[in-house]
C-alpha cells in the first residue's frame, strides 16, 4: 500500500548499512523535497562529507518532506538528477509500485551509475522486508534527532542554570557541573571567568545519564525489523496481521513476529492454525517474554521428529498432535537454530539504531545480555570503526552457557569505557506469563504445575554452584534469571555461599518468599518495574490472593537492605525508563489498575536504581553519579521529574549527553 508522499528516503542499493552517524541523517534531513516533475534538485548537508572511514556511509539517509521547500546548501558530490516513477527493477519490494514517485540520485565522486534512490512516498508503516524496515527505523530515529540537532559542546565547559540531581544521598543537589574532555571535573566549583558556560533553563533538572541494567540490545535491534504483535487484542487481528505480513514479505524469508500476549484477548494460547495466513512460508511468532513461541506447519515440518529437549515442552492437543506452541527449551533449541540469521551488516546497523533509540530516552549506558558472537561481530566492530557513533556504553553479560564456558576469551577481551564484559548469565526458570517460573507451591490456576527449573539448575544441583564459582573465580559477575520464588531459593542456595564479594546479580526477582527476602540483604536485585505493570494483570490468577505479597517487593527489598538496579529487559517491554519509573512510583498496571501499592517507591529511589544502583550492579564506578571523575553523561529533563504527576504524564527529555557531547536533543541556547 502506498501512502501520499510525506517522506523522502535516500536509498542505496549498493552499500550495506554498516555505519550510520546521526550527522548523516541530520544532513539528509535538511535536504529539500524533490518535487514531482522537477528535472533536478540538489540535496543539502554533509552526509557524504562526514562519511569517514567507511565509503558507503551517507547512502541511506532519510528526511521529512514538506518541512522544507527551499534549496539548502548543496551537498558536495551528491545530486538528484531526476524525479519520476520509481524504477522498481532496481529494487524490488511489494510495497513499491509504479505509482511510487522516486528520484534517481547520482554522485560525482563515484562511477556514473545510479547511486541511490529517493523514494518520495511513505510506505505501509509496517513494511516487512527487514532491510527496508531497518531503513525506516533509522529514518524515524534520525528525523527525531534532526529536529533537535545540537552543536557540539566545547571540550571544557560549565553547565549551570538548572538543578543537578547527583545521585549522592549525602549531597543530592548541585547548581553547576564542570566538564573537560568527557569527564566531570568539578561540582559546584567557584566562579571561573575563563570557562565557557552554558546556562540551562531554570526549570530543567539534570540527572546522571540513565542506565538500563538489563537489556538485550542485539535482540532488540533485530526485533525492530520484525512484525510487532504486542498491540494485538484478538485472534482475528492476530491472523490478519500475519496474513498481511506474509503478503508483503520478500521471497525466501521467514516471517518472524514477536510480542503477542494472550492476556490481551482472554487467555487462549495461539496455535499453528493462527498462522495459516503465512501459507508455506516458515513462520514463527514469539510470545512477548520470549519464553514461548508458536510456529506454523512449515516450521513443524523442519523440526520433524526431533525429540523435545529437557526443560522444554512441545504442546500437544488431545490427539497427540503438536499445536505449534513450543515452550522454553523447545522454542530455543528446536526452532532458533533453524531461523536464518541476519547478515552481519544488518546486525551492525540494527545495533547502531538501538544506541539512538536508547539515547532518545536519556539512556547513556546499559547492562546488555549478549552472545559472544554478537560481541565479536557487531559490538567490537562498531567500537573500532565507528567509535563516535557508539553513544551508549555497553557493559555486557554473556549469554553463551554451554558447559564448559570459554572464560579465556572473556578475560582477554579489551574492556574500555565504551564496551566491557561484566559477567555471565544463567537461567534458573521461565516466566509467570508462560507458567514456567519455578514456584514453591503450584500455580493457583494450574494445580498440578509448579513451573520448571531449566539449564544448569535442571541438570544437577552442583552444576549451578560450579558454574557460579567459576564465573566469580575469573573475576566476573554471575547473573541469574530467577522469577519464581523457588527459583530464587535455588539461586541463593547455589550462589550466595560462593559470592563473598556479593557481585552476583539476581535478575527479575518477581516473586520472593519471606525467607529469601531476608537473604537478599546486601545483594543485587536487578529488577524491571515495567514487568510489574505488565505481569500484575496475570499475577492474581497465577499466584492467588494469598501469595500476592510475594510479588515485586521493591519496598521490602530496600527495607531488607538489598541493592536495587532497574532495567527494562527490552525488547520484552519498552526501554523508556520513564515508563518504569511510572510503574514503580504509582503501582499502576498497564490497564491503570493499582497493584501492590504498598511497594511503591519514591522518584528519588527509582532514579537511584536507574543510575548509581545500576552502575554499582554493573561494577562501573565512573557511571551513574554526578561527581568529579565520573563520565560526563547526563539526562536533561525539561520538566522536573520530582514534581511530575506520574500517573497522567511523563517528564519530557530535553537532551541526552554522553561523554560531554549531546547525542540527543539540544541544550545550547
Ligand atoms: Zn532479559
Let me know the largest β-sheet: 8 strands, mixed
Number of helices: 19
Q: Give the overall form.
A: globular
Q: Give the rounded overall mean pLDDT.
A: 81
Strand content: 15-25%
Low-confidence stretches: 1-129, 136-150
Describe this protein's structure.
It is a single chain. The protein is of the alpha/beta class. It has four domains: 7-147, no CATH class; 154-208 and 624-669, Roll (Urease, subunit C, domain 1); 226-338, Diaminopimelate Epimerase, Chain A, domain 1 (Roll); 344-623, Metal-dependent hydrolases (TIM Barrel). The protein is built from 19 helices and 28 strands. The strands form four sheets. Strands 7, 8, 9, 10, 11, 26, 27 and 28 form an eight-stranded mixed sheet that branches. Strands 12-19-20-21-22-23-24-25 form an eight-stranded parallel sheet. A six-stranded antiparallel sheet has the order 2-4-5-6-1-3. It starts with 6 loop residues before the first strand and ends with a strand. Residues 214, 216, 369, 569 line the site of zinc ion (ZN).
Key terms for this structure?
eight-stranded mixed β-sheet, disordered N terminus, Urease, subunit C, domain 1, 4 domains, 19 helices, Diaminopimelate Epimerase, Chain A, domain 1
Amino acid at each position: 500500500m502506498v501512502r501520499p508522499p510525506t517522506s523522502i528516503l535516500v536509498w542505496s542499493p549498493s552499500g550495506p548499512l554498516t555505519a550510520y552517524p546521526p550527522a548523516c541523517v541530520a544532513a539528509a534531513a535538511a535536504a529539500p523535497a524533490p518535487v514531482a516533475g522537477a528535472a533536478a534538485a540538489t540535496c543539502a548537508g554533509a552526509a557524504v562529507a562526514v562519511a569517514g572511514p567507511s565509503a558507503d556511509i551517507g547512502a541511506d539517509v532519510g528526511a521529512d518532506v514538506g518541512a522544507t521547500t527551499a534549496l539548502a546548501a548543496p551537498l558536495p558530490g551528491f545530486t538528484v538528477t531526476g524525479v519520476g516513477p520509481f524504477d522498481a527493477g532496481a529494487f524490488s519490494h511489494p510495497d513499491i509500485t509504479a505509482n511510487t514517485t522516486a528520484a534517481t540520485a547520482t554522485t560525482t565522486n563515484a562511477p556514473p551509475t545510479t547511486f541511490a534512490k529517493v523514494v518520495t512516498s511513505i510506505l505501509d508503516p509496517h513494511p516487512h522486508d527487514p532491510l527496508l524496515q531497518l531503513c525506516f527505523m533509522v529514518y524515524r530515529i534520525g528525523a527525531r534527532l534532526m529536529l533537535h540537532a545540537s552543536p557540539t559542546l566545547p571540550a571544557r565547559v560549565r553547565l549551570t542554570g538548572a538543578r543537578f540531581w547527583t545521585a549522592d544521598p549525602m549531597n543530592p543537589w548541585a547548581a553547576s557541573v564542570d566538564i573537560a574532555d568527557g569527564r566531570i571535573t568539578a561540582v559546584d566549583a567557584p566562579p571561573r571567568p575563563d570557562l565557557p558556560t552554558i546556562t540551562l533553563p531554570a526549570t530543567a533538572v539534570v540527572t546522571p545519564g540513565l542506565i538500563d541494567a538489563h537489556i538485550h540490545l542485539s535482540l532488540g535491534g533485530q526485533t525492530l525489523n520484525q512484525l510487532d504483535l504486542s498491540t494485538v487484542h484478538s485472534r482475528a487481528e492476530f491472523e490478519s496481521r500475519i496474513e498481511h505480513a506474509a503478503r508483503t514479505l520478500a521471497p525466501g524469508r521467514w516471517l518472524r513476529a514477536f510480542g503477542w500476549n494472550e492476556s490481551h484477548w482472554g487467555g487462549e494460547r495461539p496455535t499453528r492454525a493462527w498462522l495459516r495466513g503465512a501459507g508455506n512460508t516458515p513462520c514463527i511468532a514469539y510470545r512477548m517474554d520470549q519464553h514461548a513461541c508458536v510456529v506454523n506447519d512449515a516450521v513443524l515440518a523442519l523440526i520433524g521428529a526431533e525429540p523435545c529437549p529437557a526443560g522444554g515442552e512441545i504442546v500437544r492437543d488431545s490427539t497427540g498432535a503438536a499445536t505449534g506452541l513450543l515452550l522454553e527449551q523447545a522454542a530455543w533449541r528446536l526452532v532458533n537454530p533453524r531461523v536464518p540469521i541476519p547478515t552481519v551488516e544488518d546486525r551492525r546497523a540494527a545495533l547502531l539504531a538501538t544506541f539512538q533509540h536508547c539515547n532518545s530516552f536519556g539512556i547513556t549506558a546499559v547492562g546488555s545480555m549478549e552472545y559472544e558472537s554478537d560481541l565479536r561481530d557487531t559490538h567490537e566492530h562498531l567500537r573500532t570503526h565507528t567509535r563516535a557513533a557508539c553513544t551508549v556504553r555497553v557493559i555486557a553479560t554473556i549469554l553463551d552457557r554451554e558447559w564448559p564456558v570459554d572464560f579465556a576469551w572473556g578475560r582477554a577481551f579489551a574492556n574500555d569505557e565504551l564496551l566491557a564484559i561484566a559477567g555471565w548469565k544463567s537461567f534458573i526458570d521461565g516466566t509467570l506469563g508462560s507458567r514456567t517460573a519455578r514456584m514453591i507451591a503450584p500455580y493457583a490456576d494450574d494445580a498440578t504445575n509448579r513451573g520448571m527449573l531449566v539449564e544448569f539448575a535442571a541438570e544437577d544441583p552442583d552444576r549451578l554452584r560450579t558454574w557460579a564459582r567459576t564465573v566469580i573465580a575469573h573475576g566476573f559477575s554471575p547473573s541469574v534469571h530467577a522469577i519464581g520464588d523457588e527459583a530464587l531459593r535455588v539461586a541463593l542456595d547455589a550462589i550466595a555461599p560462593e559470592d563473598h564479594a556479593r557481585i552476583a546479580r539476581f535478575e527479575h526477582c518477581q516473586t520472593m518468599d519471606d525467607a529469601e527476602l531476608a537473604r537478599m540483604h546486601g545483594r543485587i536485585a536487578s529488577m524491571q518495574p515495567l514487568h510489574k505493570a505488565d505481569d500484575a494483570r496475570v499475577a492474581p490468577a497465577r499466584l492467588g490472593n494469598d501469595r500476592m505479597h510475594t510479588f515485586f517487593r521493591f519496598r521490602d527489598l530496600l527495607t531488607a537492605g538489598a541493592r536495587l538496579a532497574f532495567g527494562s529487559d527490552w525488547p520484552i517491554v519498552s526501554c523508556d525508563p520513564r515508563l518504569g519509573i511510572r510503574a514503580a512510583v504509582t503501582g499502576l498496571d498497564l490497564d491503570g489498575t493499582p497493584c501492590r501499592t504498598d511497594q511503591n517507591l519514591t522518584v528519588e529511589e527509582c532514579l537511584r536504581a536507574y543510575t548509581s544502583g545500576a552502575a554499582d550492579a554493573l561494577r562501573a564506578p565512573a557511571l551513574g553519579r554526578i561527581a568529579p571523575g565520573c563520565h560526563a553523561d547526563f539526562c536533561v529533563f525539561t520538566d522536573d521529574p520530582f514534581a511530575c504527576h506520574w500517573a497522567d504524564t511523563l517528564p519530557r527529555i530535553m537532551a541526552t549527553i554522553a561523554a560531554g557531547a549531546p547525542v540527543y536533543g539540544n541544550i545550547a541556547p
